[in-house]
Design brief:
The protein has 406 residues and is an alpha+beta fold. Helices cover 44% and strands 20% of the residues. The chain has 19 helices and 14 strands. β10 and β11 form a beta hairpin. α7 packs across α8 and α14 packs across α15. The longest helix is centred in the middle third of the chain and has 20 residues. The radius of gyration is 29 Å and the shape is globular.
Length: 406
């Protein structure tokens, strides 16, 4: 399969590069068809023996994957690690930056954020030993891949936390401080539920909803978190691990660290708040009746990599919704398509609302609602002439040749 991919030139990726990526711990079990996208996002560099690629003390927001050659990782001139094909370095910097990005909007809740930023400073030199080729991924490159590849998010979490924990055991105060900062982060921030919520409201919500008061679930591979058809109104925040979402036993997506699921059942408990998020003119009575069907879970969610999940009951979030409607709006915005699709079969207003939400801003939602069920013929291009009149005009029009003859 590797050779076939290379020979087909998918993303202009050679078999050698694909082979190196397959060996990379960060890309462990990432689907083969995703690898060309990773190469397309990255830049490629070549270095010669003796060339110093990184210098201790420099700040860097990139990670590197060795495609060919050999490099040494040195601390004060002593070789502490040999890097070969498939090895990566700089993973911790990307992990720290990703954690910072998820929380920077409300940085006051990060505590001493400098502990995370300090992880972007290189602690060792990297020197080329043999002619080498490497792929370079910036934090922005990796962040773009995170959205479409939860397995990559899981691998990054495992590598980042694993390296920090090992460094802390080795006595690194920097690593110990960073781990303490990460442990104190509020899960609602990572899920994006507090986006654009005023700082005063955020402080009130995070002091009211304490992570230690939520139900923490430790899952092992094969454990079910949700079952399709069962009723439920809690949402779930992924702290660690990897989880598969199955509809009728077919996987439709995965959830990795910093993600959430179960929001459709949660939103169904608050029909009046759903109504506020929909276009003007939607019928509340018909919508409310159809929403009741959403209390049943639409999919199974099964653990595939050991981890922890926090269960957030709707009663707990109700207080946050009262504090700021923006919290509910953030949650609903993330799942509005799935939510409305799940009730559209029972409610025409849901179908119309879904169509309105998918239209460009120039489209009027009210016009779509008023004309629901009607079809409009497209405007004519240029001047419109009735076909029968055109045919009649052609029959009576004098022929130019006969005129000339007369």
């Amino acid at each position: 399969q590797i050779d076939e991919l290379g020979s087909l030139g998918v993303g202009n990726v050679s078999p050698r590069t694909i082979n190196a990526l397959k060996k990379c711990q960060l890309l462990d079990q990432v689907a083969v068809h995703v690898l060309p996208a990773i190469v397309d996002n990255a830049s490629r560099i070549a270095c010669s023996p003796g060339e110093r690629l990184l210098v201790a003390g420099d700040r860097s927001e990139s990670m590197f994957i060795v495609c060919s050659g050999k490099l040494h990782c040195e601390v004060k001139g002593a070789v502490v690690r040999e890097l070969g094909v498939g090895d990566s370095f700089g993973d911790v910097a990307v992990f720290a930056y990703r954690t910072w990005v998820l929380h920077r909007e409300h940085a006051e809740l990060l505590g001493n954020a400098s502990h995370l930023e300090s992880l972007l400073t290189r602690t060792a030199d990297v020197v080329c030993v043999e002619p080498s080729v490497l792929l370079v991924l910036t934090v922005q490159d990796v962040d773009a891949l995170f959205r479409s590849c939860p397995r990559l998010v899981f691998n990054m979490w495992q590598l980042g936390m694993g390296q920090l924990q090992q460094a802390a055991l080795d006595g690194s105060e920097q690593a110990q401080s960073a781990l303490a900062t990460i442990a104190g982060l509020h899960p609602l921030l990572a899920a994006g539920w507090l986006h654009k919520v005023p700082s005063d409201d955020v402080l009130h919500i995070t002091s009211t909803i304490l992570p230690e008061q939520l139900n923490k679930m430790h899952l092992r591979p094969g454990d079910h978190i949700m079952r399709q058809g069962n009723f439920g109104d809690s949402a779930f925040l992924v702290k660690s691990g990897l989880y598969s979402c199955l509809v009728d036993d077919t996987e439709v997506q995965q959830f990795g660290p910093w993600s959430a699921f179960g929001e459709v059942g949660l939103c169904a408990r608050f029909p009046k708040l759903v109504y506020k998020c929909l276009p003007e003119g939607t019928s509340m009575e018909r919508l409310e009746e159809a929403i009741r069907n959403c209390r049943a879970r639409q999919a199974d969610v099964v653990c595939i990599e050991e981890g922890e999940i926090l269960e957030v009951p709707c009663e707990v979030l109700a207080a946050a919704f009262e504090q700021s409607h923006a919290v509910f709006s953030n949650i609903f915005t993330r799942v509005q398509d799935r939510f409305l699709e799940s009730i559209a079969f029972a409610c025409n207003d849901a179908k119309t609302a879904l169509a309105c939400l998918r239209k460009p801003r120039s489209e009027s939602p009210q016009r779509l609602i008023n004309n629901r069920g009607k079809t409009e013929s497209p405007p004519p291009k240029g001047r419109y002439i009735n076909p029968r009149r055109a045919a009649a005009a052609a029959r009576v029009r004098p022929d130019s040749d006969s005129l000339a003859a007369s």
